């Protein structure tokens, strides 16, 4: 994580620094209590890993390009790795690789800087071109829009809005 300049962002940084190791337990607890349910995979399908390239080789390429493990993330069905490239404290490129070789990615606010905007996909954007430049011939590009093939349900918010 990039160390922020402003005092407010530094306070957020330290909160997340200490909270992050516990996030998988909070995430898994919210899922098991049906506070949050997931279906499918995140949007913005980029493509499939090229034949002859293993998932391990692809992930190694991403790590060499500056991507790192992203512990504060939800897990999609079939996901084997979630990586991010932190542009600055405010924005990140987030990438998921799936067991079938599918790769999905987007640009968004970091959960550390703007957790609610991040949670509700505000500023969630397709940034296909920068991703494709990183992959070279290691990824076979997907040609149609993959924006609407996932769904998160936040039951507490949904029930609150009904009342």
What does this structure look like?
The protein has six helices and eight strands. The chain has 163 residues and is α+β, with helices and mostly antiparallel strands. It has a domain at 43-149. The chain has helices spanning 7-19, 23-32, 55-64, 115-119, 128-135, 155-162, and strands at 36-40, 45-49, 68-69, 79-86, 91-98, 102-109, 139-141, 150-154. The protein has a six-stranded antiparallel β-sheet with strand order 3-4-5-6-2-7. Strands 1-8 form a two-stranded antiparallel ribbon. 20% of the residues are buried.
What is the H-and-E element order? HHEEHEEEEHHEEH
Structural class: alpha+beta
Give the strand line-up of the largest sheet: 3-4-5-6-2-7
The beta-strand count equals 8
Mean pLDDT: 85
Helical coverage, percent range: 25-40%
Q: Largest sheet, if any?
A: 6 strands, antiparallel
Overall 3D geometry? Answer: globular
Q: Helical region count?
A: 6
Beta-strand percent range: 25-35%
Distance between the termini: 39 Å
Give the low-confidence spans.
146-156
Radius of gyration: 16 Å
